[in-house]
Specification:
The protein has 110 residues and is mostly beta strands. The protein is 0% helix and 44% strand. The model has no long low-confidence stretch (mean pLDDT 90).
């Protein structure tokens, strides 16, 4: 299972789909189909994903954050050879609390 992430409503989120071999990165072949489904599309969703010509080892997928809640993204990649690979990741979207709730102060070298 992929990483769980928590964001506030209005923040930008990108999903990264990566191909892997047993030893290192591998391209997702051209002609593969990609399905990414949100368990709660009222919270967040993604547009259709297409593998570019020549395949891709990594694809950035913009996630549209719509409302507070929790959704799981289930990803299925089916290669032209019929191999099916899956993964999932959980996104928690929190409502933005009105007003200032904290500050931070960091020191840095000039």
């Amino acid at each position: 299972m992929g990483q769980a992430v928590t964001v506030n409503v209005g923040e930008s989120v990108v999903g990264v789909l990566r191909g892997h071999s047993d030893a290192n990165g591998a391209a997702i072949p051209e002609g593969s189909s990609v399905a990414i489904a949100s368990s709660d599309p009222a919270v967040a969703g993604v547009d259709a994903v297409t593998i570019p010509p020549g395949g891709a080892a990594e694809l950035s997928v913009p996630v549209v954050v719509l409302a507070a809640g929790v959704t799981q993204f289930d990803v299925t990649v089916t290669t032209p050879a019929g191999q099916t690979l899956t993964d999932s990741a959980v996104l928690t979207v929190e409502a933005v609390a009105p007003g200032l709730v904290r500050v931070s102060f960091d020191l840095q070298k000039a």
